[in-house]
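Here is one chain, start to finish.
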Amino acid sequence: MPPRKKAKTAEYQTTIADHWPGVPPARSSDKAEDIQVTQRRGGRRRKNPWLKDLPNLPIDVLIEIFGCLHPKDLLSFVRSCKDFCRFLLHPKHDFIWREARKQVEGMPDCPPFLSERAYAHLAFSWHCRTCARKNVRDVLWPWFARYCSTCLPDVRYIRKTIVAPLNDIDKSLTKDDGHYSLFNVVNPTEGSNSAKCNQFHRPQVDQFAREWAEAKTKNARNELLKKQRARVKERDHHAELCAEWYSNKTMDRYVVLERVRLERVWDTIDKLKAEGWGPEIEWLDWSRAYYLDNRPDIWQATKLTDRAFQKILTRLLPELDEWRKDRLAGKPAPSAIYYRHPSERYRF
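Its structure:
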């Protein structure tokens, strides 16, 4: 079997660095410089080969292009190659992310304690902050971080466990629950010992402990407490704005997907009627919502194609035959059935 060919990268590596000397060039190997054809395994050429010429564009053209993109697109470019990664993540290019953020309707301004790059990554990249696990959809806005269920217990204190480390610093910090004003708390609930409530961010607590140790005098520590409470209020204010925007964005996305699913259901019904199963569909009446709408192969947020409909029809044929027999026999339509387990509802 011939060796797998690798993409040529040497031809792009000096372009961005030539235009912007502050960006170091990416490393390359000697083998990559000798390869003339960009192919994937099996001899297939890459899709969209025009992207290979994008790094060769003048720097002002690139800036105009990036400024018109969505932050999610910029994140994709960051992961595409080392040159774009170094260019877009350079501190001097925060203005590119700022212009891209303006393309997102209703998105709050970047908090002063975050960079535009970090803000975009937090809002649009579903990765755990610690282990980079994918599909972490929930953002802990008081902490401005995403954590998967595996990493979360290691980066938090709860109501029971926060008292001991703070007492080791100074027992006056926990007097009358004064520590609640010193840290950003997730799900603050008075008197609850649940692990889902009253969660404190361990990095924030550890940073405060280091600053407390550096403040030797009483006046310095009083000043630290004042600054810490001001920082917490500022973060809570921005967290509230971001959480409201993120919730609205999620709901808007849900509405769009629901509309696509409903269109797929009605397209399926229309095609079933065209195949001659119209009397059975009308016979089901309102019960069809439980026999058609809740099927996982129908209730999908994708447009119905002829090929997908043929698969649905093949699976539905036994039930359609039974419904036709019952309808011709004068039996009433089956009533709606509620299942205890979702797997029973979706069983074919």
